[in-house]
Design a protein that fits this description.
This protein is α/β, with parallel strands linked by helices and about 170 residues long. The chain has a single domain (about 1-169), classed as Leucine Aminopeptidase, subunit E, domain 1. The chain has five helices and six strands. A six-stranded mixed sheet has the order 1-6-5-2-4-3, with helices on both faces. The termini are close together. The protein binds ligand AR6. Ligand AR6 binds near residues 10, 22, 77 and 154. InterPro entries: Macro_dom, Macro_dom-like.
Length: about 170
């Protein structure tokens, strides 16, 4: 399993699937969700409307339309409420369920954004710990996936991931 770290816009990546940090309506929003819908074009929203939303911690897959990737896996991260509302468990589920969907679709390359660390205000260190642990723990059991990229967008997350992934890159 190849683990990569990329700093920049997830919508530019030509991989099998990118993960979207969506909200439970799956009807678009700001942040990475807004950027993905903007770049994919209106057909993405039309397909998302047929999905009838998504629970926090779950994931659903769509085509990618005008994006250079093949699929978008939409997952809904938890809103940070202080840490006593199952946030860690739900964030872990986002990564687990996205990996599961990618394997079901036989995908080889997948990119994760830093789910919940923007508008949903999850502390970045703790979110990175969960993201990396969950992915690395499963990496030996994955069959179709050959390459997983963590896409960071801000300097803080970049530093955090660089330090934590240091010996894996
Ligand atoms: N490429 C990669 N990462 C990005 C991009 C981009 N183009 N734009 C932002 N990020 P957020 P959340 C990073 O707020 O916290 C939306 O409105 C950003 O710097 O996008 O899970 C949804 O509809 C941050 O590190 O998602 C929901 O309502 C990370 O992506 C809500 O926000 C996640 O930030 C979800 O909040």
């Amino acid at each position: 399993m190849k683990i990569r770290l990329f700093k920049g816009d997830i919508t530019q990546l030509k991989v099998d699937a990118i993960v979207n940090a969506a909200n439970s309506t799956l009807l678009g929003g700001g942040g990475v969700d807004g950027a993905i819908h903007q770049a994919a074009g209106p057909d993405l929203l039309e397909e998302c409307k047929t999905l009838k939303g998504c629970f926090t911690g779950d994931a659903k897959i769509t085509k990618a339309y005008n994006l250079p990737c093949k699929y978008v896996i939409h997952t809904v991260g938890p809103i940070w409420r202080g840490g006593q509302c199952q946030e860690a468990k739900l964030l872990k589920s986002c990564y687990k369920n996205s990996l599961k969907l990618a394997e079901e679709y036989d995908l080889e390359s997948l990119v994760f954004p830093n789910i919940s660390t923007g508008v949903y205000a999850y502390p970045k260190e703790e979110a990175a710990e969960i993201a990396i642990k969950t992915v690395l723990k499963r990496s030996s059991k994955l069959t179709s996936l050959k390459e997983i990229t963590f896409c960071v967008f801000d300097d803080t997350n970049y530093k955090i991931y660089q330090e934590r992934l240091n010996d894996r890159l």
